[in-house]
Design brief:
With 445 residues, the protein is α/β, with parallel strands linked by helices. It is 30% helix and 18% strand.
């Protein structure tokens, strides 16, 4: 097919689903190259791989981590040029081991040709990410890069890594910012105090990744009093000096505008998190969205619904997500009772290899869902099961209830279903989600 037949707008829509691959797309033909070069958004994500100095096998974790390759510098220059005035996402990735050190690498300093171009592009940076472990000496390079630069459109900051974030580079980065709205931190961030910045009061989303071992919980609410969305990673400890539930109680009680709360657990943190939630015994009357995620496959310990009930018994909860949580069906129904009249979206994904009696999506659940007076305002239902279910019971429930959005099933939904059931299913607007699978491994909200 001749690419010129399709209008540029349609190609833009197609490209938006192709991910960040503008360079590959531009090499297909001259027409697509012209179309891709005209699309600023396609070039707006700029990833900068930082390499450690040294030859193959000569790995020093304290060595300078501010080298890039000549090929990469050319691509950065091209991306900055083709984005024109479009906001950009800047990603620094220093997670490359020394054996991948490129032969044409050079140090990213003020004398580098790409350095002044990056400083000019920083003013358009909407999202800033620093990934993996950055060597301490990179603080100097980053400091020189952001020094004196205003960042009026910077909204999102994500920091992954360890040890170096207490340096002056981030202080300079945050000084140039005007209206940061979201912060995500994962790693051993030892000295991050942001309350003195004017934009600290505009932060509405704060996420602690699972790799951050300790965080004084009361300082979250002290630094960011207007948070509306709080997410806690699997291994986060709220207070290394006090009991965990005291730190949790402090932060949840102080955040008066909190509408969304997410907790991610793994095998090591499960007992601590559940105990803290139970002992905190704090209600969040403003809460509208609750997500509880268990991110370890194959490890199933029962979770009592009473751990979560107190969080929502005074709330007007609209969205509930339970991903990978081994809970009894009766417990699930008890959890849903306090939010019967307010819940709009229900998302449940069973643990892998779920065994009785910890199958929340049991016949008892589906029979209860038949009743239109149960969760009468529910408009969106998304279910993933990992055991054999009564497919007729599921279809009966879906025919009985008029949901606006439905996705149910497993990897191969309704495999080997009877012809009559297949006919009924074909008349329903059903999608089948692996999209609700529990995010195993390192979760980055």
């Amino acid at each position: 097919m001749d690419p010129s037949i399709l209008p540029a707008e349609l190609w833009d829509a197609i490209f938006s689903d192709c991910g960040n691959t503008p360079l590959c797309l531009s090499q297909i033909c001259s027409h697509l190259r012209k179309t891709v070069h005209a699309n600023c958004k396609l070039w707006s994500v700029i990833r900068i791989k930082l390499y450690k100095r040294g030859l193959r096998g000569d790995f020093d974790p304290l060595d300078n981590c501010s080298y890039i390759s000549c090929v990469q510098a050319d691509r950065i220059t091209q991306s900055l040029r083709l984005t024109r005035t479009h906001p950009i996402t800047l990603i620094f990735d220093s997670g490359v081991i020394s054996t991948d050190y490129p032969p044409d690498a050079f140090e990213l300093t003020e004398q580098s040709s790409v350095f002044p171009l990056m400083r000019c592009g920083l003013g358009r940076c909407r999202e800033f990410k620093m990934e993996a472990t950055a060597a301490k000496t990179f603080n100097d390079t980053l400091s020189n890069l952001v020094r004196g630069i205003a960042l009026p459109v910077l909204r999102d900051v994500s920091l992954y890594g360890s040890g170096w974030y207490g340096g002056g580079a981030l202080e300079l980065l945050f000084t140039g910012a005007r209206n940061i709205r979201r912060i995500y931190v994962s790693g051993d961030v030892l000295d991050l105090h942001l309350a003195h910045f004017d934009w600290a009061h505009t932060i509405h989303e704060f996420k602690l990744g699972q790799d951050w071992p300790r965080w004084p919980g009361d300082s979250i609410s002290a630094q960011f009093p207007n948070i509306s969305n709080l997410s806690i990673g699997a291994e986060t400890m709220f207070d290394c000096r006090l009991q965990d539930h005291i730190g949790l109680r402090k932060v949840l009680s102080a955040l008066r505008l909190l509408t969304s709360f997410s907790v991610f657990m793994n095998y090591d943190s499960r007992q601590q998190v559940l105990e803290a939630l139970k002992l905190a015994d704090v209600a969040i009357p403003t809460l509208e969205e609750l997500s509880i995620v268990y991110i370890d496959p194959g490890v199933h310990y029962p979770v009592a619904e009473s751990v979560f009930v107190h969080l929502i018994h005074r709330a007007s909860l609209k969205t509930l997500r339970l991903l990978g949580i081994p809970i009894r069906s009766a417990g699930l129904l008890n959890l849903l009772q306090p939010v019967q009249s307010t819940l709009r979206v229900l998302i449940i994904s069973e643990p892998i290899a779920t065994i009785d009696p910890y199958c929340p999506l049991s016949p008892a659940f589906f029979y209860q869902m038949h009743d239109k007076s149960f969760l009468p305002n529910l408009t969106s239902l998304h279910l993933v099961w990992n055991h054999v279910v009564d497919e007729k019971c599921v279809v009966d429930m879906l025919e009985q209830r008029a949901f606006g959005a439905v996705s149910v099933g497993r990897g191969v939904p309704f495999e080997g279903m009877e012809e009559e059931v297949k006919r009924r299913v074909s008349q329903l607007n059903i999608t089948y989600p692996p999209l609700l699978r529990v995010p195993y491994g390192s979760e980055r909200p």
